């Protein structure tokens, strides 16, 4: 079980601020990354695309952000399109 806190950032006009923190759980780190990707994609699809609302890792969780970025790069275009089509 992989468990981490994530922050939800709310954009209001030109300002973004932390709205709240949630604890997310997933079976694996990859499942956790997928959850982050799908949830942020859902926010962008269901609201105005210029909306900056999003979930992020905690500010001091640089290592996890780096791992997520590498996971994203390694997904490949075909897998990304599949994820976004099903999300």
Tell me what you see in this structure.
- The chain has 87 residues and is α+β, with helices and mostly antiparallel strands.
- Helices cover 48% and strands 31% of the residues.
- The protein contains 3 helices and 3 strands.
- It has helices spanning 29-46, 62-75, 77-86, and strands spanning 2-12, 15-26, 54-57.
- A 3-stranded antiparallel β-sheet has the order 2-1-3.
- The two termini are 23 Å apart.
**What's the main sheet like?**
3 strands, antiparallel
Provide the spatial order of strands within the biggest beta sheet.
2-1-3
Q: Which percent bin holds the helix content? A: 40-55%
Number of strands: 3
User: What is the chain-wise order of helices and strands?
Assistant: EEHEHH
Oligomer: single chain
N-to-C span: 23 Å
Strand portion, in percent?
25-35%
**Chain-averaged pLDDT:** 86
Structural class: alpha+beta
Structure annotation, total helices: 3
Radius of gyration: 13 Å
- What is the 3D shape? globular
Q: Low-confidence parts lasting 5 or more residues at pLDDT below 50? A: none
């Amino acid at each position: 079980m992989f468990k981490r806190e994530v922050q939800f950032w709310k954009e209001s006009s030109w300002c973004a601020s932390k709205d709240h923190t949630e604890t997310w759980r997933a079976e694996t780190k990859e499942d956790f990354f997928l959850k982050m990707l799908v949830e942020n994609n859902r926010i962008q699809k269901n609201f105005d695309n210029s909306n900056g609302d999003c979930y992020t890792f905690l500010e001091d969780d640089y290592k996890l952000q780096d791992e997520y970025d590498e996971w994203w790069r390694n997904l490949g275009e075909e897998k990304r399109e599949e994820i976004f089509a099903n999300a």
